[in-house]
Structures are given as structure tokens and as C-alpha cells.
Write a structure and sequence with these properties.
By secondary structure, the protein is α/β, with parallel strands linked by helices. It has 19 helices and 22 strands. Strands 1, 2, 3, 4, 5, 20, 21 and 22 form an 8-stranded mixed β-sheet that branches. The chain has a 7-stranded parallel β-sheet with strand order 6-13-14-16-17-18-19.
């Protein structure tokens, strides 16, 4: 029998709802009343209602239209939305806000089908820039090309010889650099692989132009950082893009101190229309500063939380940097990269327990996941804590013996369902049939009693969270491949998929008392959709449009043709 995850997540919400009386007749008028829509609250006390009301940025009523209209005042805005569906504000539990902003302003390589197409896009951008100006791009994926080997720099260097070029792979775990960039970085045949990184080399030992995981820093150290003005523009563009897809919150994975300072500036000035649960990068020079400052919750009227540490244990499957217990099936002799030593993970986990910070560690391969679980277990022996909510980000490939350890240790597997549908064909080649049985194992994990907060890892995957919803319930891509779903026994139900992008991310961020469901007392965050994703045929889910995104009762996005 499967252990239900509902009691674990909704206990606080149920208590809050049960203790919240109906508003008295003398209650202040609502700022916003919504009627006419089919409203999914994700609250087990009142799972579906026909109206809601928001006052002072918080939900004050959910229930009948008659009950909501009691709170109507002379300045109340009333939205009657027949035929629409409303769900709580969607939260992406693993995203990279600045990465998205940068991707929106660099050469877009997503969907390219060959190295020639990549080069053509880069050459077009080169003609628009000044001589010597750096060219950045992101999104190439050699697994989608006819030749699935890593590219080499020669053709790129011939097409763009005088401007340095650095192109980030779609997963963010490898870059392709041209000869000019490598020259500026002083890369030679004698340049050693750094710990946790790999320089891809040709038969003669020369760098081919691809740098994996920590080796990316060899190029990155000479790439000029964006100015503060450029960074501000990137962040604002990314926030607007997130709102456009129905996001009211994100968990921002691995943010350095100066970027957090900018977030605070924007939130202080009322220009930050997201609730961001920030994970401070563990290699940030500012980490000590934030540890001294202590956990920060609901800053600037509930727009920023700074109370988590992000660690990176290994690389990614696509670039063969994920750390595996056995060799890659398609590259014997390579079992990936450990980017952060086990003792460092353990010491940071101890520090997090001592200072009240959650610790969230990127781990994709089965070896990396075991390393992190072992480190967490050792840290918890040293500093016992009942409700630490440590997380493993991605948890893609698990040894079957390690699946029950998440529940036993109280560790949350923070996963991205759209990764499964993007990676399905490649995964079988990388790790073979046996290890695939423990890959993207949502049902196996849910059956142990854990919750799975869902995300996109944008810009690795598209921002649209409904792609992840569709992946969660079908384990098929947008074209319907494979028929019947990829290992369909591991699917989520629609109810679980909805929770995975609302209340489960709230729980994973210690925010379940203020967000994640449309419950009186919580933030008035919700999304208006043009069709009911809980009832339409699976192949119609990806055609669903976000018509409106509401944060704290304020509309932060509205579709152009929605009146």
C-alpha cells in the first residue's frame, strides 16, 4: 500500500483552515473577488470552490460566490471568469533566474540540429558586435545532432577567428570555446584538468574546445562579467518571463552574494514580482556573510527568503559528468566527476544544521546521490535535527537501495519532471537498462512517503511549468513519445502533479503556512488558465494558456487578448 504524502504536507494548512473562522459581516472589504471560475485550492479542507477573496495581499475567503460577495465594497475589484480555471500560484522549485535573464540576451542555441547551425547563429551575432567583443551563447545539445559526439572548435574558430566565443551547453555543465577564447584563457596542451572538471582533448592531447563542469572556470575566469546595469536588466527580464508562464515563486539555485544584493535592491523598490527562495552558492565568497546574518524569511513583504545553501556534488548526464557507481555504458572508463568532496558536503551540512540553514545539494548520478545521503546522515548524527528538510536537487539516477533513505533521513528529492522527457532517449545510452530502473523514480519515491517539489531548472528546460505537469502524468514528450509513457509505472497522478508545483515546493521551502494553497491567511497568489488541466485530455495540456498571474492580489501578468 502506498503511503499518502498528503498528511505530511497539509497538516499545517489543514490546521490553519480549520482555525480560520468565516469573515464577520464587519470584516474589511476585499480588494479583489474572483467568481465564475473552477478554483482548485490544493487545500484538503476545501479542495474546490467557486469564489475567492483577497484583502491586504492575503486570501480572506474561499467558498461560494454568495459568501465572497459579502466582502464586496465600493473599491473592490470583481473578476468574473466563466470558463476559466484557477490554481494556486505556481512555484518552480529549482530554477536559475540570472541564467534565464542571460539566456534571453545571448545567442539562443536551443533546438539547433547541428554544429553548422550553431556556427551560423554565432557568426550572425559576430557581425552585429564590435571587434574583440565577447560572444556568449547557450543551449547547444550534441545529443540532438546527427553526430552526437562532443563538438570541436576548429570550424567555429575559422568562422569567428577574431572574437572570443564561449557557448554553454543546454545543461550548464559544459562550454564550447573557440581558439581566441582559449588563447585569452592561456589554455595549452599542458593545462591540467582541475579537480572536478575535465578538458576534452584530441588524440594529440590538445584541447578540443569543450570544457566540462569545473573546467568551465578555466574559460569563465577571463569572460568579462556583466555590468550592474546589464545584470539588473537580465533579472527584470527573467522575472517578467517567469510571470508570463504563471510563476509566482521560484527556488533560485546557487546565487552569489552580489546578485542577492541586487535582488534586495529590486524588492526594496517594489520591482520584484516573484517570491524567491534563494539558495546561496556554497562557493560564494559571501557565504560566511549570510551565515553570520542568519536565516532571512519573507523580506520586503514576502518577496525574498535567504535561508538555504546550494552545493554541487557532480555534473550532468548529457555531458557525462554525473558521478556514477559504475562506468558510463557509452564511455567505458569514465564514471563522471565529483565536484565537491564528501567531507566538504558533510561540513557544510553540519554548518547548516548549526546555523538554521537548509542545505540543498545537486546530485544526478547514483554515486553522487549516495555520497550526499551519506554526508547528510553523518551530519545529522553530529547535529540531530528533526525538521531540517535537507534536499537533493535532481536525484535523477538512484541505486534502488538508496530510494528508501530519503524518507528515513527526512531528505526531500527536489526533481524536474521535464528532465525525464528531455533525457529519456539519451539516458538509456548513458547508463543502460539496469540503472534506468532507478532513474526519475517518482512513484518509487512517493511510495516511501516523501514529497517531490517540481521545477524546470530553467534555462536548462523551458520556463513553462505545464511541460513538467504533462511530463509528470504521462512520462511522454510533446509528441507523445514513447507510446504509453517511459516506464509509466513511475508516473504521478494529476493531483500529485498539481501539488508538486504548489504546496510541495512551499513545504520544501518552509513556506507551507503562507503559500502553496488558496487557504485563508495565505498569500493571494494564483494563476488563471484558459482550460482545466485537471480534466482535459493529456495531449491538450500543453495547449493550455496562462491568462493571468496574480501575486498578493495584484495582477503581474495578463494575456494581451484576455479582457
Amino acid at each position: 500500500m502506498r503511503i499518502s504524502a498528503w498528511p505530511l504536507v497539509f497538516a499545517a494548512a489543514a490546521r490553519l483552515a480549520a482555525q480560520t473562522p468565516a469573515p464577520p459581516a464587519s470584516a474589511p472589504p476585499a480588494d479583489l473577488i474572483v467568481t465564475g471560475a473552477r478554483i482548485y485550492t490544493v487545500d484538503p479542507v476545501r479542495p474546490m470552490v467557486e469564489a475567492l477573496a483577497v484583502q491586504g495581499g492575503r486570501v480572506v475567503f474561499v467558498g461560494s460566490t454568495r459568501g465572497a460577495m459579502v466582502l464586496r465594497g465600493p473599491r473592490t475589484r470583481v473578476l468574473d471568469l466563466p470558463g476559466r480555471t484557477i490554481i494556486p500560484g505556481i512555484v518552480d522549485a529549482h530554477a536559475h533566474l540570472v541564467g534565464l535573464g542571460s539566456a534571453l540576451r545571448t545567442v539562443d542555441l536551443v533546438g539547433t540540429r547541428s554544429l553548422d547551425e550553431v556556427i551560423a547563429r554565432v557568426a550572425a551575432r559576430a557581425r552585429e558586435l564590435r571587434p574583440g567583443e565577447w560572444i556568449r551563447g547557450r543551449g547547444w545539445n550534441q545529443n540532438e545532432w546527427a553526430d552526437t559526439r562532443f563538438p570541436t572548435h576548429e570550424a567555429l574558430s575559422r568562422a569567428v577567428p577574431d572574437q572570443p566565443v564561449v557557448l554553454t551547453r543546454v545543461d550548464g555543465h559544459a562550454v564550447l570555446a573557440n581558439a581566441r577564447a582559449m588563447e585569452l584563457a592561456h589554455i595549452t596542451n599542458d593545462t591540467p584538468d582541475p579537480p572536478g572538471g575535465r578538458i576534452i582533448r584530441g588524440p594529440d592531447g590538445a584541447a578540443t574546445g569543450v570544457f566540462v563542469d569545473n573546467a568551465q572556470g578555466l574559460i569563465g575566469r577571463v569572460v568579462p562579467p556583466p555590468s550592474l546595469g546589464e545584470l539588473r536588466a537580465q533579472v527584470l527580464a527573467a522575472v517578467a518571463e517567469a510571470n508570463r508562464w504563471g510563476l509566482t515563486g521560484i527556488h533560485d539555485a546557487g546565487v552569489p552574494g552580489p546578485t542577492i544584493d541586487l535582488y534586495e535592491e529590486l524588492a526594496r523598490g517594489g520591482r520584484y514580482t516573484l517570491r524567491n527562495y534563494v539558495m546561496v552558492s556554497s562557493d560564494s565568497a559571501s557565504l560566511d556573510q549570510y551565515l553570520r546574518r542568519g536565516p532571512q524569511n519573507a523580506l520586503y513583504d514576502g518577496h525574498l527568503w535567504i535561508r538555504a545553501i546550494k552545493i554541487v556534488a557532480d555534473g550532468a548526464l548529457g555531458s557525462r559528468g554525473a558521478a556514477l557507481l559504475e562506468d558510463y555504458s557509452d564511455e567505458p572508463g569514465n564514471h563522471g566527476l565529483v565536484r565537491t568532496p564528501a567531507d566538504r558536503i558533510q561540513s557544510l551540512a553540519v554548518l547548516g544544521l548549526q546555523r538554521g540553514f537548509q542545505v540543498n545539494t545537486h546530485a544526478i548520478g547514483d554515486a553522487a546521490n549516495r555520497i550526499v545521503l551519506d554526508a547528510y546522515e553523518a551530519a545529522l548524527r553530529e547535529v540531530p535535527r528533526a525538521d531540517h528538510r535537507f534536499r537533493i536537487e535532481h536525484a535523477q539516477v538512484l541505486h534502488r537501495q538508496d530510494i528508501p533513505r530519503f524518507a528515513r533521513l527526512g531528505v526531500i528529492p527536489s526533481m524536474q519532471t521535464s528532465h525525464q522527457t528531455s533525457d529519456a532517449a539519451m539516458t538509456m545510452n548513458r547508463i543502460g537498462w539496469t540503472r534506468v530502473q532507478g532513474s526519475y523514480a517518482w512513484r518509487s519515491l512517493l511510495n516511501t512517503g516523501v514529497v517531490i517539489p517540481n521545477g524546470t531548472d530553467f534555462p536548462v528546460e523551458p520556463v513553462n511549468p505545464l511541460i513538467g505537469f504533462h511530463s509528470a502524468i504521462t512520462r511522454q514528450d510533446a509528441s507523445g513519445w514513447p507510446a504509453g509513457g517511459w516506464f509509466p509505472a513511475e508516473r504521478m497522478t494529476r493531483e500529485e502533479a498539481l501539488m508538486s508545483m504548489t504546496i510541495w515546493p512551499a513545504y520544501a521551502a518552509f513556506m507551507e503556512d503562507v503559500s502553496g494553497s488558496l487557504t485563508p491567511g495565505k498569500y493571494g497568489d494564483f494563476v488563471v488558465l484558459d482550460q482545466d488541466i485537471m480534466r482535459v485530455a493529456p495531449d491538450q495540456i500543453l495547449a493550455t494558456r496562462v491568462m493571468m498571474t496574480v501575486l498578493g492580489g495584484e495582477v503581474v501578468y495578463q494575456a494581451a487578448n484576455d479582457h
